[in-house]
């Protein structure tokens, strides 16, 4: 048993060493292969206070933010529903009611968004 534990620790140490060496190799290759020529655009720091080439204040409309959040919510629903569907036969009726509550909460969220006009791209963001 102790031989197996020491072997596991040795393998973990080797993996840590390989990861460290790969990180050092990546940094070294970057320094070695990166172009070193300096231009006027590269020299000043970003907070130097110079003039920008465009209008700096732009009004950003959150027109599709609600739709994006709803997409993320229902995408997460699928992430939870797939493993639930795989083990549904073994877990039984309790899992069915749990998933029913989960889907009901998400359905109420989409109903609320629909009622408030969040699904209408012309209405949301105003």
Automatic annotation (TrEMBL):
Lineage summary: Bacteria, Bacillati, Chloroflexota, Ktedonobacteria, Ktedonobacterales
Stated family: Belongs to the complex I subunit 3 family.
Substrates-to-products reaction catalysed: a quinone + NADH + 5 H(+)(in) = a quinol + NAD(+) + 4 H(+)(out)
Top EC category: translocase
Keyword DNA damage listed: no
Function, in words: NDH-1 shuttles electrons from NADH, via FMN and iron-sulfur (Fe-S) centers, to quinones in the respiratory chain.
Pfam families hit by this protein: Oxidored_q4
Coiled coil: none
UniProt entry keywords in alphabetical sequence: Membrane, NAD, Quinone, Transmembrane, Transmembrane helix, Transport
Entry GO terms, CC: NADH dehydrogenase complex; plasma membrane
Source organism per UniProt: Reticulibacter mediterranei
Protein name (database record): NADH-quinone oxidoreductase subunit
Membrane topology: Multi-pass membrane protein
Gene3D superfamilies assigned to the protein according to its UniProt record, in alphabetical order: NADH:ubiquinone/plastoquinone oxidoreductase, chain 3
InterPro entries on file: NADH_UbQ/plastoQ_OxRdtase_su3, NDAH_ubi_oxred_su3_sf
Membrane-crossing residue ranges in chain numbering: 12-33, 64-87, 93-114
């Amino acid at each position: 048993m102790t031989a197996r534990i020491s072997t596991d620790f040795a393998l973990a140490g080797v993996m840590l060493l390989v990861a460290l060496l790969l990180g050092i190799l990546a940094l070294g290759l970057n320094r070695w292969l990166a172009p070193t020529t300096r231009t006027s655009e590269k020299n000043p720091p970003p907070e130097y206070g110079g003039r920008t080439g465009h209008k700096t204040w732009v009004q950003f409309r959150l027109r599709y933010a609600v739709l994006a959040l709803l997409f993320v919510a229902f995408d997460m629903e699928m992430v939870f529903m797939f493993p639930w569907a795989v083990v549904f036969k073994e877990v039984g009726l309790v899992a069915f009611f749990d998933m029913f509550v989960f889907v009901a909460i998400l359905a109420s969220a989409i109903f609320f968004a629909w009622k408030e006009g969040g699904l209408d791209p012309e209405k949301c963001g105003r």
